[in-house]
Each structure stands twice: as C-alpha cells, then as structure tokens.
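hey so u asked for the seq, here:
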Amino acid sequence: MDFLWTPWRYRYLAEAGTDDRCIFCAALALNDDAKAQIVFRGKLSFIILNRFPYTTGHVMIVPYAHVADLPQSDPEALAEIMRLAQRMQTVLSNIYHPQGFNLGMNLGRCAGAGVTGHLHMHMLPRWIGDANFMTTVAETRMEPEELTTTYEKLKRALAA
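ran it, structure tokens below
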C-alpha cells in the first residue's frame, strides 16, 4: 500500500470539534489580515481563504456578525455578500481562468457545515477534470499552489 503524507491536515483533523471558538470571529480578532488570510474587508462582510481548500482559490465570504442562519442576518450584509461573490468571481476568473464555479452555504451540521454558528458562503473555482483519482480513491486533494501565494494574488487583485 502506498501512503501520501499530508501533515498540514493533521492539525485540522486533531482539532476538529475540540475548539468552541468561532474560526471567523477568531480570524477577525487577530487584527492581522495576512496571518488570518483575510483577503478583503467590506463594510459588513469579508473574504477569507479556506485553510483546507478543495481547489486553489477556494474562499469564503463571511458577514462580520456572528449569526447562524439567513433569517437572523442583516439584509444589507447578505446583499454585500452577493456583491463580493460577484467581484470575487471576476478576480478568480482573471487569475486562474476556471471553467466554472461552485457557490454555496451549508447551514447546520447535518447539511455539511463545518462551522455551524457563523453563516458563510463558499466560492470555489472549478476546472473540467479537477476531480482527479486522488479525491475518488484516497479522499485526498492535490493543491498546486501554497495558500500564501493564493493570498498574495487575491489580496493584490482585490486592492486594484
């Protein structure tokens, strides 16, 4: 049997479910966007890299308010999230030239939410054939770009 080592994922697996802090509120509290990997701050929401991305450029668009569901959310924050998604699609298209996008929210643990208390929307660039054998056979994803490189590219593009 062959093994592929992904030591960077161990911290995520080991800590899953052991920390009651909200990862989004903790990222904001750092007051260090590079360390938190916040690529853009809007008036009511922000864009942050997913630390364990499914594809290069996988971001999350998050309201500042710590709310779990759409009915609790400020309508203006929800509108800004969609405007940021629109802008992010343009940025990701210009940088990575994907052939499509996945965009969505998982509300509640049974719906697949890893962070249940703080609403957020995922945006993932996609390419034909990007679901390689590694995902199917080994539940492993192959990322061609380090997060720091992705962060710098997106931060620069969003600042323009």
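The beta strands are 38-41, 45-49, 59-63, 100-104, 121-126. The longest helix spans residues 75-96.
lmk if thats what u needed
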